[in-house]
Amino acid sequence: MTGPSDILGFWFGPDLAPWQVERWFRPDPGFDAACRDRFGDLLAPARDGALDAWAATPEGALALLLVLDQFPRNLHRGTAAAFASDPHARAVARRAVLRERHDLTLPCTARCFLYLPFEHSEEAADQDLSVALFEGLRDDPAHAAPGGSIAYAWAHRAVIRRFGRFPHRNVALGRATTPAEADYLAQPGAGF
């Protein structure tokens, strides 16, 4: 049976390899297919809570959050299903980070994936938490650099403060786009 170590090995490579932005955050049909082929059958059980026991350890919580928060974005890119497990991901992340403090036992790059469910939220309080957590990585040059994860946390929060939601999700979620959102989306680099 597939377990946390399989997911972490696939996502990070050996020894939680350094930041791999191109692989993780840029659309890549080949990588999406690899996620689907290897781990697509874990999404429904994870969303339904069947894998919650994984969250008892830092590595298990990290793997579960990859399944709940990252894999849906790869497997269901551009559809509402990409966000269907976000509420469960936030609940797992809240427990792992705020109660268990699993994040403090992981390398900075891995910590980011415990924090991303808050960055992906359309709730202002989650965005504030995201920024606070990512700011805790300030001593790591890879995250503090311009265009690093800290800058992305601030950018996500700015969009939520401005619009109360992520306009780039409107089409997938069947929401009408306001004129102000349309102007924003027309700008180079808008959306995430």
Helix share, percent:
55-70%
User: How many strand elements?
Assistant: 0
**Overall pLDDT level:** 92
Tally of discrete structural domains: 1
Low-confidence stretches: none
Using only C-alpha atoms, the radius of gyration works out to: 16 Å
Shape: globular
| Order of secondary-structure elements | HHHHHHHHHHHH
Please name the CATH topology.
Serine Threonine Protein Phosphatase 5, Tetratricopeptide repeat
The percentage of residues in β strands lies in: under 5%
The CATH architecture name reads: Alpha Horseshoe
- CATH homolog superfamily: Tetratricopeptide repeat domain
Q: Report how far the terminal alpha carbons are from each other.
A: 33 Å
Write down the CATH class.
Answer: Mainly Alpha
Largest sheet entry: none
SSE-based structural type = mainly alpha
Helix count from the secondary structure assignment: 12
